[in-house]
Every structure is written in structure tokens, then in C-alpha cells.
């Protein structure tokens, strides 16, 4: 059963690769959740800024200090953040699809190797 040892080592490598992909998927989900939270917060800010009239005072927190900011500039900054966050979310969605495809392929490989190893062991037992 010399081929069996080699197959076991290959199976172990593939299983580790599968686990690595699973960790990347989990990290992707965490990042996507953070971006969705930020998107919600920024959309809420945008809604609040849209309610204000042109004469309203807007302040931006920079460190421990509130600094007066132009309303138009504040709206533009929030729009840019929303655009950036939306773009990152789409990028992460694409990466997630790719990772899920890779995970599925690795899972199939691992299952095939496990089956071959089991077949080798049952043949060796005979």
C-alpha cells in the first residue's frame, strides 16, 4: 500500500487547502458585513443631510474637534463614501463567488481522494 501513503499525504494537503479557502470565505463574509453596516450608516447620514436646507450648519468630527463644513462638501463626501463602499461590496461579492466555486471543487477532490483511499484500504484488507 505504498500508493496509499502518498494518497493520504495528498489528501491531507487538499484538505488543508480546502480549510484555507473556508477561512477566506469567512473573512469575506465578515468584511461584507462591515461594509454593509458602514453603507447603512452613510445612507442614514445622507438622508439627514438631504433634509437640511442650504443655510444649515454642518460639522465634521476630526479627532476631538468639531469643524464647520460646507453642506455641499459634506453631501459630496458622503456620496463618495457610499460609492466606494458599494464598489467594495460588489468586489467582495465577486470574490465570494470565486471562493465558493474553488471550495466546491476542493470538496469534490477531497471526497474523491477519500473514496480512492477507502477503496485501496478495502482491497488491501482482502
Automatic annotation (TrEMBL):
Which ranges are annotated Polar residues under compositional bias? 115-126
Per UniProt, the keywords (alphabetical) are: Chaperone
> Would you identify the family this protein belongs to, as annotated?
Belongs to the prefoldin subunit beta family.
* Transmembrane annotation, as ranges: none
Cite a single GO BP annotation. chaperone-mediated protein complex assembly
Q: Which intervals of the chain are annotated as region Disordered? A: 103-126
- Cellular component terms per the entry's GO annotation: cytoplasm; prefoldin complex
Q: A Pfam family in this protein? A: Prefoldin_2
Source organism of this protein record: Klebsormidium nitens
* Name of protein: Prefoldin subunit 6
Q: What Gene Ontology molecular function terms does this protein carry?
A: protein-folding chaperone binding; unfolded protein binding
Gene3D superfamilies annotated for this entry?
1.10.287.370
